[in-house]
């Protein structure tokens, strides 16, 4: 009889002093573990299917206008004006960039998961790095109405990190707050140093439900507390967690509706 068959059987209540009490106890424990594992696998499969459906839809979304405007430009009839050509080209380029982002996110999360990405640590000032990143984000016209407030009692914090990867992680976290907040969302970055390097990244947005918090870092989850459909792969925060973890760090999130969201990131001091 296979282990799976054994685990699916129902066993009699355990007698405290029975001859086979330890055996029954072990089998019951195995049964509970198998059922728990099955439930997790089913949940993951459902999220994966939903994620694949979303990705397929998102890839079709930019392709539709690209195809449409390309057909207009290739039409044998009256040629569009120069102004129209520039408009069509701008829309096509924007959608090509979006499709490229989708593909790159898929590639990055696969590389991170399988340890295929070159990891290049360099010792640098983490404070200055985060400040420069904040300026770069706010210089983007789409985020110019938001704010990033930096709170740190020190100006120089040396840390060995991969610049490109950590830039991606914190960009994902900050931009996620802006995208799911209002046009005047404020993000605060607070840094502490004790046994570890602590970074608290908080926002004054709408917050999240318990379900959204529990699934936030799942690769196949695309929960949102906004009514507006947000373009994206659903991989941004999963990628951020993967990057933090390969730096030896941890990331947890605390949030509730109406109170905003706080990310607690911790790195070892070495």
Overview of the molecule:
- The protein has 270 residues and is an alpha+beta fold.
- The protein folds into 2 domains: 1-117, Signal transduction histidine kinase, dimerisation/phosphotransfer (DHp) domain (Helix Hairpins, Orthogonal Bundle), CATH 1.10.287.130; 122-268, Histidine kinase-like ATPase, C-terminal domain (Heat Shock Protein 90, 2-Layer Sandwich), CATH 3.30.565.10.
- 51% of the residues lie in helices and 16% in strands.
- It has helices at residues 3-8, 21-73, 82-113, 126-138, 163-179, 210-215, 236-246, and strands spanning 122-125, 147-151, 158-161, 186-193, 196-203, 250-255, 261-268.
- The strands form 2 sheets. The chain has a 5-stranded mixed beta sheet, covered by helices on one side. It has a two-stranded antiparallel ribbon with strand order 1-3.
- β4 and β5 form a beta hairpin.
- The longest helix has 53 residues, at 21-73.
- The N and C termini lie far apart (52 Å).
């Amino acid at each position: 009889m296979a282990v799976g068959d054994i685990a699916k059987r129902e066993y009699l209540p355990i007698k405290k002093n029975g001859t086979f009490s330890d055996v029954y106890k072990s089998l019951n424990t195995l049964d509970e573990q198998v059922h728990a594992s099955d439930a997790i696998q089913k949940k993951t499969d459902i999220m994966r299917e939903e994620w694949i459906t979303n990705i397929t839809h998102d890839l079709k979304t930019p392709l539709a206008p690209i195809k449409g405007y390309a057909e207009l430009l290739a039409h044998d009839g009256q040629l569009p004006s120069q102004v129209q050509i520039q408009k069509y080209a701008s829309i096509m380029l924007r959608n090509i960039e979006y499709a490229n982002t989708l593909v790159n996110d898929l590639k990055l999360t696969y590389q991170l998961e399988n340890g295929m990405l070159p990891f290049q640590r360099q010792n640098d000032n983490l404070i200055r790095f985060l400040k420069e990143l904040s300026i770069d984000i706010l210089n983007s016209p789409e985020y110019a109405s938001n704010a990033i407030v930096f709170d740190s009692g020190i100006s120089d914090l040396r840390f060995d990190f991969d610049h490109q990867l950590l830039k991606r992680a914190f960009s994902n976290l900050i931009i996620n707050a802006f995208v799911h907040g209002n046009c005047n969302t404020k993000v605060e970055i607070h840094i502490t140093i004790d046994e570890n390097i602590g970074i608290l990244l908080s926002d004054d947005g709408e917050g999240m439900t318990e379900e959204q918090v529990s699934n936030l870092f799942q690769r196949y989850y695309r929960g949102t507390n906004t009514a507006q459909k947000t373009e994206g792969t659903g991989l941004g925060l999963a990628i951020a967690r993967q990057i933090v973890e390969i730096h030896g760090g941890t990331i947890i999130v605390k949030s509730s509706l109406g109170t905003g969201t706080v990310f607690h990131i911790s790195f070892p001091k070495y």
